[in-house]
Write a structure and sequence with these properties.
Helix content: 25-40%
Strand content: 5-15%
Shape: globular
Order of helices and strands: HHHHEHHEH
Radius of gyration: 19 Å
């Protein structure tokens, strides 16, 4: 479920309000179903620190066993499935970066070439910002 803007802003002092607004408005419901509100806060903190010198952040942690993920009441069924580590060596990896065509394929290719087995993956990217409808004017007349 999408967290309320006010709840996020309380936890994100110093983070630009326009980033919070864009994150809430431009990510799909699948993102908010997959990540808990505390993970969304963590993502926003890291996204706010991206720059030309720091263009990517990699968050990696041991994956929770399937039963532990299912026991966390805050998670949805989709999130529990996403976190279904298959053993002690499973790692959950979240990569935060500006979107570029082919970036997801590049990252997964590098991981696979490095010997990692990718059990599942998802890409979440900002959709286009809604823009006002263009105003069309008739020659010599008003807007239609």
């Amino acid at each position: 479920m999408k967290p309320r803007r006010e709840e996020l802003a309380k936890q994100l002092a110093g983070v630009d309000d326009t980033l919070i607004d864009a994150h809430l408005a431009r990510l799909g419901d699948d993102y908010f179903a997959e990540f808990t509100p505390s993970e969304v806060v963590r993502h926003l903190r890291h996204l706010s620190r991206l720059s030309g010198e720091r263009p990517v952040v990699v968050l990696a942690e041991p994956a929770a066993p399937p039963s532990a993920a299912a026991d966390e009441g805050e998670r949805t069924a989709g999130a529990a499935g996403r976190r279904g580590g298959t053993g002690d060596e499973s790692v959950e990896c979240t990569i935060l970066a500006a979107d570029h065509p082919g970036l997801f394929a590049l990252i997964t290719g590098v991981l696979a070439a490095g010997g990692f087995t990718i059990d599942c993956g998802a890409a979440h990217t900002y959709g286009r910002a809604a823009s006002p409808a263009p105003s069309v004017r008739r020659a010599g007349g008003g807007a239609r």
